[in-house]
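Changelog note: in this version the structure field was regenerated for every chain. One regenerated record is shown below for reference.
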Amino acid sequence: MVKSTCRRLCGAVAVADLDTAAADNAGGRGELIIRSKVAQRLAERAAAGCTDVVPHAAGLGKITGRTSPNARVVVSGRRCRALVEVAVAWPAPVARAARRVQEDVAAALTDYAGLHVDRVDVIVTHVLSVEDRTSRSIQ
């Protein structure tokens, strides 16, 4: 019996009964389950890291916390599809920015989650100039 604790990081305690013979067999190690929410966060972080993508919240999004980039990922077994919404900085070429988001999101889902990515759709919801990105205050 092996007891693993990570209480300091997440407050959880996991207990696993490992048979040494089963541990040597790859099939006896268990399985990895990637939840859609984890894949969604990976996709959003990858999109946010792209050069011409800028964070943006408009209208009710400011109140509800829905910001761009925003992703929806459907995971089925080891395969997934993603839809990513982003805002792009002006004067960046929109097609180039969208292609970069596709590539970075697919790479993140493959590298960090081990998923086979069937497709990544990118919607550019806003093109923002420097003036649009600065916060305006009421005086």
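Spot check on this record: Strands lie at 2-6, 12-16, 53-54, 70-76, 79-89, 116-128. The longest strand covers residues 116-128.
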